[in-house]
Give the backbone structure.
Amino acid sequence: MELVKKLACDSCEVKIYDLNAGCETNECREKVETYGIIRVPAGAVDSKLLECCQSGNITEESLRAAGIGKQ
């Protein structure tokens, strides 16, 4: 989470969901199903689960390659 916050541009919208705590509207659990999340932490950009979140470690390089930090 800290890495995403660090890399995100000023105009980027970053939403963080705590699956342990849940959320009032159940939106966070619906996102798990919609994106096919099977492990956490996980991230999505433009409504797509990041490739690094499907198969490997989340790194600064993988987040930048996904477009995080670009305006």
